[in-house]
């Protein structure tokens, strides 16, 4: 509180002097930066809050407020495309959840194994493999979409468009995230625990399952949460590899609605997917914290959260 | 400690997956772009053997990329949008990242959560939010006209119609791009600003540098890697973006390179041309990447981390 009161005393001075006060006092609290930062935060969050608000609007309008209702979520009236009862929106929710769940189940094990291999394999081809792993992270999504579309339409034509193609695409662009997170953890734990276990007579298989795996578990959980969130939010790959109405995901549904006439239920389905994403990330952070409790040399919970962003 | 064959073996599934579903698809793009086109159905006939490659479609697209042709206008417009959005991200993002890294003390945790939050809200939902705000009668539109911002923008010629932000306004597309990508810019910048050792600044001040001089000659060079990293992180996807202009504008007058590619595959008749544009775009972005990696390499030699 004392810091909050301190700058107020400066208002006794004139404006120019106060301006000098900011610049002169390098370690003080610069109000200009406070203003920019909080304005930015309001600007970045409030539009989303407004979208959430209008998913509860008792009207078809997305701009004028007519009171609170849950009908855009739960109504069974066939004239109202509610999130949980309209075949289209419900189908999109199910498709998004199905893709994200399967993506986690496939990309996480492949990514963990690849991270182990890339961190410890020092032979021919390891450098090239490392390079290959990093490339999907910097490839613009449209290039990824075009290339997979042409692969499945010209070369591997036995792969059907729709769920299968979408899943293959999602996994391809999730593996690298798993590798980056798990490899970071591998480097920070180092080889000493496994060396100690070896000195005490543990067989290689025991070292892997009883020493390395428990130590890697937080990173595995974190990467699974991130893969889930990335897959749920993905629009471009899902769109390029879809086969029409049967494989529409929530982001595709939102896109199509914004190009036609968005309704409060569009805001509603976006809100549902946002809540699911946030819950998965929070669960990931909590599990990560639980498994790494008592470890020294790591940052605060906030660093973990910030790390989740990158 | 472990058998030699173990680690190449664990890497195998991932490497095979990426070879088949990342590298091979890129080759498929080359095969289509340098292939032929069925004269009746206009469907691509890909050429898989590089000896059979036909460069006529590629040179056709390249020929469109000179001043005076339609594709040149799209390319210039894309560069303008990306450049202005990047400038906007730096102008807004640098003060924010600087404040959170240097000055926020008790509120730092809260601020970081709020900065990370947009990462976990679907990009499409964040664009949809602006449709809510800027559609007729929306909160944002009312705010802009009540504060007089709309008429100022109108008189400056930034927007052509103060009541219609969603009908082909470049301003709205740039606003959408900044809004969409700025979180990805701020976080790496924050990380590099947060790592700066304060004693460097204290030394500069002790040696008589003014606060501004100390900022310009110490903080800015030390945050260069984060600044460039954030810029590359948002520039690459912005060059390939097609959904932002489609959602907040939808007009051909605001179409970007990504929209052209989208058009040639979805709706337009010729995937061959779309594939050729994709290759040009990738090559252009590759040059950007190489420039970035060279700069980072130099910076890491000049300033010991």
User: According to CATH, what is the class of the domain at 70-268 in chain B?
Assistant: Mainly Alpha
**Helix content bin of chain B:** over 70%
Q: What is the average of the pLDDT values of chain B?
A: 87
* β-sheet strand percentage of chain B: under 5%
Please identify the oligomeric state: heterodimer
The largest pleated sheet of chain A is described as:
none
The helix fraction of chain A, in percent, is over 70%
Class by SSE composition of chain A: mainly alpha
What number of domains of chain A?
2
Percent of sequence in beta strands of chain A: under 5%
Sheet with most strands: strand arrangement of chain B: 1-2
Work out the helix count of chain B. 14
Identify the overall geometry of chain A: globular
Give the biggest beta sheet of chain B: 2 strands, antiparallel
Count of individual helical segments of chain A = 14
Instruction: Report the structural category of chain B.
Output: mainly alpha
């Amino acid at each position: 509180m004392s810091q909050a009161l301190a700058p107020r005393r400066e208002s006794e001075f004139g404006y120019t002097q106060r301006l000098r006060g900011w610049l002169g006092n390098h370690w003080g609290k610069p109000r200009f930066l406070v203003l920019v930062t909080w304005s930015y935060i309001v600007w970045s969050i409030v539009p989303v809050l407004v979208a959430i608000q209008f998913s509860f609007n008792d009207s078809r309008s997305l701009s004028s407020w007519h009171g609170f209702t849950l009908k855009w979520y739960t109504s069974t009236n066939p004239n109202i495309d509610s999130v949980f009862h309209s075949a289209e929106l419900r189908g999109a929710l199910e498709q998004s959840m199905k893709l994200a769940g399967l993506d986690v189940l496939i990309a996480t094990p492949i990514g963990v194994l690849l991270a182990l291999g890339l961190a410890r394999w020092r032979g021919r081809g390891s450098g090239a493999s490392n390079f290959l792993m990093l490339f999907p992270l910097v490839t613009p999504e449209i290039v990824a979409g075009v290339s997979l579309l042409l692969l499945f339409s010209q070369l591997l034509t036995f792969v059907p468009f729709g769920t299968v193609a979408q899943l293959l695409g999602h996994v391809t662009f999730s593996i690298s995230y798993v590798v980056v997170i798990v490899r970071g953890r591998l480097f920070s734990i180092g080889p000493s625990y496994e060396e100690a276990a070896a000195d005490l007579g543990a067989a290689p298989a025991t070292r892997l399952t009883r020493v390395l795996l428990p130590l890697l578990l937080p990173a595995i959980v974190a990467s699974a949460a991130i893969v889930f969130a990335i897959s749920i939010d993905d629009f471009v790959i899902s769109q390029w590899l879809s086969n029409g109405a049967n494989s529409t995901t929530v982001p595709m549904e939102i896109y199509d609605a914004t190009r036609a006439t968005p309704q409060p239920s569009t805001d509603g389905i976006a809100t549902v997917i946002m809540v699911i994403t946030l819950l998965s990330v929070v669960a990931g952070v909590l599990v990560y914290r639980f498994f790494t409790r008592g470890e020294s040399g790591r940052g605060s919970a906030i660093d973990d959260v910030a790390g989740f962003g990158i | 400690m472990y058998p030699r064959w173990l680690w190449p073996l664990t890497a195998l599934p991932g490497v095979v997956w990426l070879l088949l579903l990342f590298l091979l698809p890129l080759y498929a793009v080359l095969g289509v772009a340098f292939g032929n086109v069925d004269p009746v159905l206009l469907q691509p006939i890909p050429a898989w053997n590089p000896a059979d490659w036909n460069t006529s479609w590629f040179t056709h697209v390249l020929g469109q990329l000179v001043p005076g042709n339609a594709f040149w206008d799209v390319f210039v417009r894309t560069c303008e949008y990306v450049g202005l959005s990047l400038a906007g991200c730096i102008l807004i993002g640098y003060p924010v990242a600087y404040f959170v890294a240097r000055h926020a003390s008790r509120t730092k945790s809260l601020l970081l959560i709020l900065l990370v939050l947009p990462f976990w809200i679907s990009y499409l939902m964040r664009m949809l939010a602006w449709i809510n705000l800027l559609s007729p009668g929306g909160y944002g539109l009312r705010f802009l006209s009540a504060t007089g911002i709309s008429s100022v923008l109108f008189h400056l010629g930034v927007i052509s119609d103060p009541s219609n932000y969603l009908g082909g306004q470049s301003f709205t597309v740039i606003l959408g791009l900044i809004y969409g990508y700025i979180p990805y810019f701020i976080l790496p910048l924050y990380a590099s600003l947060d790592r700066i050792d304060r004693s460097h600044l204290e030394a500069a001040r002790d040696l008589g540098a003014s606060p501004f001089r100390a900022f310009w000659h110490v903080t800015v060079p030390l945050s260069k890697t984060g600044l460039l990293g954030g810029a590359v992180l948002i520039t690459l996807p912005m060059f390939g973006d097609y959904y932002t202009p489609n959602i907040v504008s939808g007009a051909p007058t605001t179409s970007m390179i990504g929209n052209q590619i989208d058009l040639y595959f979805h709706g337009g008749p010729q995937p061959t041309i779309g594939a050729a544009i994709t290759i040009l775009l990738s090559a252009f972005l590759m040059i950007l990447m190489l420039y970035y990696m060279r700069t980072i390499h130099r910076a890491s030699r000049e300033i010991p981390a």
